[in-house]
Amino acid sequence: MTNFREFLDYCMSFYNPYNGLYPIDGLTREEVALATLNYLDLVASTDMTWGEGDSLDRERVRDLIIETRAVNQQFDNLVSNMEVA
Fold first, then answer.
1. What pTM value is reported for the model?
2. How far apart are CA 67 and CA 85, in angstroms?
3. Are the CB atoms for 38 and 29 separated by under 8 Å?
4. Which end of the chain has fewer CB within 10 Å, C or N?
5. What pLDDT, in 10s, does the model give residues 45-54?
């Protein structure tokens, strides 16, 4: 990949909720962009490597999206439970 936009397009072609090969329900381009930035931070601060936007990079971004959604859901559940109490 030669730039950020191209990588986002590549990820969206696989995971967009309308016609992606492996659609992720409700996925937005902004969500992919944030996960990509988080991934690039990991690459910069760990021994993880950037594969020039290859399939492993795309899958790692997908994994970050899934993990972030899980954490956000846990937080939402915690807040909901606090409001009920």
1. 0.87
2. 27
3. no
4. C
5. 999 999 999 9
